[in-house]
Specification:
The protein is mainly α. The chain folds into 2 domains: 187 residues, Citrate Synthase, domain 1 (Orthogonal Bundle); 100 residues, Orthogonal Bundle (Cytochrome p450-Terp, domain 2). It is built from 15 helices and 3 strands. Strands 1-2-3 form a 3-stranded antiparallel β-sheet, with no helix packed on it. A hairpin with a 2-residue loop joins strand 2 and strand 3. Helix 5 runs antiparallel to helix 15 and helix 6 crosses helix 7. The longest helix is centred in the last third of the chain and has 23 residues. The structure holds acetyl coenzyme *A.
Length: 367
Amino acid sequence: MTEAPNPVTMNQDPTAGLEGVVAAVTRLSNVDGQNGILILKGEKIEDLAGKIPFEDAVGHLWQDLNLTGVSSISTGFADARMAAFDVVPLLERAPAALSVYELMQLGLTALPGHAELPEAIAICGSLPVFLAAAHRISKNLHPIAPDPSLDTATDLLRMLTGSTPSSEEADALDRYLVTILDHGLNASTFTARVIGSTRAGLKQSVLGAMGALSGPLHGGAPGPVLDMIDAIGAPDNAASWITGALARKERLMGFGHRIYRTRDPRADVLKAGLHLLGASNPKVQLAEKIEAAALAALRQAKPDRPLDTNVEFYTAVLLDAVGIDRTLFTPLFATGRAAGWCAHVLEQQTTGKLIRPSSQYVGPMPE
Ligand code: ACO
């Protein structure tokens, strides 16, 4: 064995993270990280979330996709929820050790093809059912059948809790689902596009994307955000707790982003939704104090790296205010983002091109 010709070491790798690399051309969404603007098919996120229902926002995102056979996204999703409920008995028989997220993946794996529903509709419509059923199974409760007369957000909350939510709660969840529909070439969407580029089916692409989303640096942050808020406990503790965490080189969950060098616009959309729910909630007030303290501490600790509030911070506070268990935050993220994943896979497949980048070998060479 001889030394590799190039002395680049793994931790000096300038390509690590592919930052700034353009790996797809898309008409779906644009993340302008310098100016804090997120555009979904020509519309700013703040002009969609809280303004049109989730189903219409999906229709907006999917407008170029061929979804023949469904009269509307709402009807398609309602039919898909009903079809998915047939798979729920399988989830009830699954090993108890499986997490809600894994049960959702199991449900998706077992979801049969539907003669009348496009696969994207069947997949996206099924996830609320699998999420709610898996949560209830994990609590030794009976799964609740979907109600096709309801919209996705209302039915999801009803299937989770067994009672019809207030319109404010359903609107808050609906706003969240729209906010997270799509977001450029993030890790899970890239994963979905890579899998889709092999001409694997939509289901396999969504399952792979769910794997990518499960990590704490991507979709797994909101639960830890709430843990952080709980650990801080009171506004007066915020500054010292945060200084201590940064001194221990810990990351503050809900802050920082690969693309945004300013505030993530989705944070404000969710914060506005939170205020519609009632900002007098002491947890909301605590969260706002923590946000202010975190931003001040991050500015001081990392003056050269703008680190601002990301979507996960107010996701955590909003979903908590709606009464959703923190263990369900990542499953819920997948439920909303699945529409974006499907759109990206179908868009990628129109190129007919396999995604296959190169790597630079820096290991030993044979004699
Ligand atoms: N708290 C403290 N320091 C941070 C944070 C944070 N939240 N985020 C980044 N930094 C620091 C890093 O420690 C690093 O410092 P160093 O150069 O001294 O080592 C520097 O900023 C750059 O960090 P990177 O990880 O290289 O930057 P990247 O752009 O890859 O990070 C990420 C993006 C992973 C989201 C990061 O900001 C983070 O870990 N945030 C906390 C987790 C989180 O909120 N995730 C949800 C993201 S939103 C989403 O996925 C939907």
